[in-house]
Fold:
Amino acid sequence: MPDRGGGPTGPRIRVGRPSRRVRTLLMTLAVLAVLAMAFVMFAGFWTDWLWYRSVDYSSVFTTTLWTKIGLFFVFGLLMATAVGVNIWLAHRLRPPLSAMSLEQQSLDRYRMSIAPYKKWLLLGVTALVGLIAGASASGQWRTWLMWVNGVSFGQKDPQFKMDVSFYAFDLPWYRFLLGFGFAASVLSLIAAALVHYLYGGLRITSPGARATAAATGHLSVLLGIFVSLKAVAYWLDRYGLAVKSSDFKATGNWTGLRYVDANAYLPAKTILFCIAVICALLFFATLWRRTWQLPVIGFGLMVLSAILIGGLYPAIVQKFQVQPNEQAKEAPYIEKNIEATRKSYGIDDAKVTDYSGKGGTGNAEQVRKDADSAASYRLIDPNVVSPAFQQLQQERKYYQFPSTLDVDRYTDADGKEQDTVIGLRELNINGIPKSNWINDHFTYTHGYGVVAAKGTSTGSDPAGSPDFTESGLPSTGTLVGDYEQRIYYGEKTEQYSIVGGPQKELDYEENGEKTTSYKGNSGVNLANALNRAAYAVAFSEPQIFYSGAIGEGSRILYNRTPKERVEAVAPWLTIDGDAYPAVVDGKIQWIVDAYTTTNGYPYASRTTLGDTTADSLTDNQRAVVAQQNQVNYIRNSVKATVDAYDGTVKLYQWDTEDPVLKTWMKAFPGTVEPKSAIKESLREHLRYPQDLFKVQRELLTRYHVTEPGQFYSGSDAWQVPDDPTNKDNSAVPPYYLSLKMPGQNEQQFSLTTTFTPNGRPNLGAFMAVDADAASDDYGTIRLLRVTSTVRGPQQVQSELNSNADVAEFVRNLRGTDSDIEYGNLLTVPLNGGFLYIEPVYARGGTSNYPLLRRVGVAYGDQTVFKDTLAEGLNAVFGVEGEDTGEPPPEEGTTEPPATGGTALEKAIADAQKAYDAGQEALKKGDWEAYGKAQEDLQDALERAAEAEKSAGGSDAGDKNGEGQQDGDQGS
Structure:
């Protein structure tokens, strides 16, 4: 019996196999571990399938899945076959083994060690490379679908006369195939060379021939395939020049051919293609010649040619032909770049008009009158007043509003279209009184109601609060009528909720808690045990599987932000950063703008979406969701909606001519509804998207110039100015505003921005696009190119900051522990000049939210700072009210004001009367009467303060007046 340990004289230790019970236990644990890992992978797949089925976009899931699986297996098998066949062939072509040298004797040990495992080793290597190649290929599913479904652009590039679809859809796929071919040939070459070396086909130190004839032929064929692929690469590189990016010092970022490309690189690529073909034939010829002498010479010639023809020659052309007369040489190519770039970004139809900017010399009264109709001046800044919405309309701590509200258009009670600032009262999970799993996911499940305010009014509150047209909990008002107020899907709703089961939800609080149970069809049913187990694993929350709060009818809601839902059902779209809500046909609908993009439009300069769409308001919530960040073609081809109650996602075709959208509609049939399916009630709320506008304005800083010489010199280049009200040097955001551009008879809901000359603070241009989707002029870009030296936004802001009235206002604010906060600086063309309007807020003191206190107005060389917009316009145009600084009298008021004690008594009596009337109107919900009463109250309080000042009691009067205002605000 053999000794099992310890040595000849040591104790014997008996080592036996584990008992059957232990082996069974270990095997059971191993099986369970494998099953657990398998179920974890299955849970991710199964929950994805259930979600896509719940939103009726299962075809997107299946098309994407089968495409990925197909690419994985096809290219994985191709790679595994290529490498495996070459390993097998190298092994079969091995010479008879004879240890004739020390090199072969040392290799003999390795040959013997792997001999029993050759088949397994072959399978392992091929499986590994196949898995890697398949995984890489499956990531190209978009490239494959665009290639196989691509439609024609109907436009040809100016150099090769190829349809744009070749560069957008075909060339990316050909490049992927080429890259795959290179990878397969290189891996096969390395694997074959190692096997040949291991079995003696290749020798490094042994005497005699370095390679057998069989090894020489085999490796030569592989090298010939590699060089053949290089020839194909040289040929495709010719077309790649049309979409190649380069740094052109005259213009910065450049895409397309320049003089040196057309006259040096292009012929060089053709010559190198021919040399590579000849070199490949020489490698294939070794099958008969059995020598590498000619192929190696040919390969060396190809490398030398690549250096001289492909590198040195273009550099000589650039140095001695182009640089001495660069502007003339590059002019034809600059012209092609300008034309392609303007077309690819949709700015080729921009209407450019020269505009003095100095202002006309017309009658001041007439200009003042024209100012009233030039625009609907939005004094309520959606970027500033969110805290006011939060303080005045939050109602409960577990509700919240977005930090930046939205601007939309609604028809008021008088039938007039009104620019409206709107926000939804969404759920704030961090504000739940007692946070636990049931409260977080079962009880507090949704927000409640729309809150809206007139964008053009300071409001009836004398403190300067917004003039709410929809408010309260539940929301009431005269703006949108009856609608479903529950908000289960929103920009702030990122956690999952489980609804519709035995656990009741908190609906809202009004004289106690009101409960509800979700009645929508959204979400995934959790009544099935398999579904519950899958979601317990996917969400790492085991309570989902066994909790008694989940029962018949329970549904799980997740992927609840509008952008997240649209991006999931249409993963081929780029999503605008700003989804906005609208009440349409009794439902709150999130409207999401979506873009089709490509990086392959010939000659069109590229832009980086993340950088171009950033401004002083961009945050994680408002950032663009891009599939590819570098693009040189973009269209707002899809308008999407997400129902805030049931999460229904609808995609509507908006750009009916876009070939990229047509391609994706072929790939995913039935997912995008036709443009004719958009109801008029929805169309009224569609608008021109901000991110597309920001991309276009960035391109127009250079591409408003169409003359190549001027474009080359950059003498008329613009820049997007920094936001003058923001200190982080970020770009000024575009503003939605209803205004009349020169030549228009009526106000149009527009998206506007300003430009300054490159490196200068004065105004260079003003840009507006008709943003109302119901308008025939929707999407029309109008540019006013300023021909005079006119103050720019930063200069106007600087002058306003140094205004004496502003300085006094700031000193008074500091006495009340308040800070000044500037709103949006609006720019409006008027009578040949530009009118600047800026609301000014006070924040702090007795309230921690901004209150509209003053308005800054600038026109021509004048800058004023007044209590109201009417006063500011009067003052800046030098008409009524300028001498005294008092606002014009109210219409219908003819009685002279009382003085002394009589005035004080009358003012106090009027104030009490107005206050009582306001309270009565508040009880009835009559907001129009309430607004009128608050206006009367403000007037009475101001008269009381003036009367007390005249009586020598100004200090007491001020305090009394402030106390009454605060009391009114609190009531």
In short: The radius of gyration is 37 Å. DSSP finds 27 helices and 34 strands in the chain.
